[in-house]
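[SOLVED] Need 3D model of a two-part complex

Original post:
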Amino acid sequence: MSDCPVLDIKGLTVTLGTRRGPARAVAGVDWSVRAGQTLALVGESGSGKSMSVLAATGLAPRSARVTGRVHLLGTELTGLPEDRRRRMRGRHVGFVFQDPTTSLNPVLTVGRQVSEAAEEHLGMTRRAARARAVELLDLVGIPSAARRIDSYPHQFSGGMRQRVVIAMALACEPDLLIADEPTTALDVTTQAQIVELVADLQRRLGTAVVWITHDLGVVAGTADEVAVMYGGRIVEQGPVDAVFAHPSHPYTSALLAARPDPAAGGADLITIRGAPPSPLDLPAGCAFWPRCPVRADARCEHEVPPLVPVSAGHHVRTFYRHQRPTGEDG
Amino acid sequence: MSGSEEKTSRRALSALRHDPLAVTGSLVLLLLVVVGVGGAWLAPSGVNEVDVDRMLQPPSWSHPFGTDELGRDVLSRVLVATRVSLQVGVVSVGIALVAGVTLGLLAGYYRGWLDNLLMRCMDVLFAFPVLLLAVAIVAVLGPGLLTAMIAIGVVYTPIFARVTRSGVLSVREQVFVRAAVSIGASDLRIMRRHVLPNVAAPLIVQTSLSLAFAILSEAALSFLGLGVQPPAPAWGRMLYDGRGFVTEAWWLGVFPGTAIFLTVLAFNLVGDALRDVLDPRQLTIGEARRNAG
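Solution:
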């Protein structure tokens, strides 16, 4: 791993101007991802996971006010003029969006869509870009790519379309791949194939991956780091093994407990009471306290807990302290 | 053009060939274009050849459409007037299409104050009855063929702007537009490559319908004496001139009227068929049905 992170975010806040007043979607988030590494951003809808990535790369809605520092390959993005930022993003960052049925343009052939980025940013001729598109479609496992290149998106299945989207994202050999819930709209076996495909491509190309998901199961096998977000803040962050073995925030524990367990047979699914808070109306103190099964401390309802280390690289934002086997924390 | 784009248009053409209405409409249009180009040459006699001995003669072998009150051959005048009607249709709809699509695209893509400004202006234009607005514009610019075309173009601009904007509003929210933004495509490129082709289908239909309406509007303006100036022949003007002789010389109105009717019908038939064929998704459904049937 190189020393310089591919994407480094410090103190990122995003405030959306809405009709009902400002909504604080992201409230001071720090994370970074290095080449060849996968960071999983986990959280429920509205937790700020997607918004933090979109804002960092300059794709936040126009009404958003974004502050904080974002470095892409060592270049500060936040101060850059829109045009340069657009070029940096197009050249170095690839995006895979959630729903492959809508993320492809229905009236262009998949070949044209895959080659578009290569034409735009690598200055390739049409012919060269077309050859590159065949190569990419082949790389993402589309059978007889040279023949399928002139097909339209509706002639592909959901899983195949998502492969096309991944090929588009990889067209410029990006240093960073952002996957925004890329498997949510797919059936389970296809999900596994896509997860495996991205992991495999990452090994071969050394790309950094930010995987945005609400499904802990998807990331368990492939991510290196995980950051759990709630109410616009990171509540727990650390190496995936450490977080899964010792979930230290009540929310992380609840998320892990809420995963369906086939071994439990027909037992009821465990859920988290209540609904995630609206960014328009966040509770004071720790955003999770109204739903928290622990509420360990009187400060929970008034004070935002600081992010404190649990073990090497593993941080948590809660006043509550587990009895840990190592006993390193009170 | 890339090979794939050629393939789409070829598939669309082959689908059109299987639609009898589209074939009929296209043949009529083809005929009209031939007549429009070669009308003066095809006409049996000169359009302004006055022959007072042969005034108001009913259709006969020497004058298949009869003669008018000045003894001019109606067939010749109908044939020559074809060019005027087609010209007005194409030029005025061309003006409306270019202006309307540009305004609608900008309004729908950028939203905000620009959208409000442009669309409220369109609403103002839209609030006038079509003909009244056209008459007002002609009154300002002075009567004549060119001003009639400009007036009709202006009158039909809001329709194109609205159709474009409503399409753009839904297309710009699609993830593939966001994806194009994410790969760093410029606004212009996104509008041209991703947004506009996805709103093309309703625009094509609107174009064919508007061609029909523009020809009707020209006829109406000429009927009111505000379009083509006599003695040049125009279908609408011929209707106007024949109006005084409805009871004794039906052929003065019926033949130019039929020409207007056929032209409008042909544009509508072709427009409807194009709509069914140009959308690649619908094309596949059609193909699937044919293959299954």
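Edit: The two ends of chain A are 34 Å apart (CA to CA).
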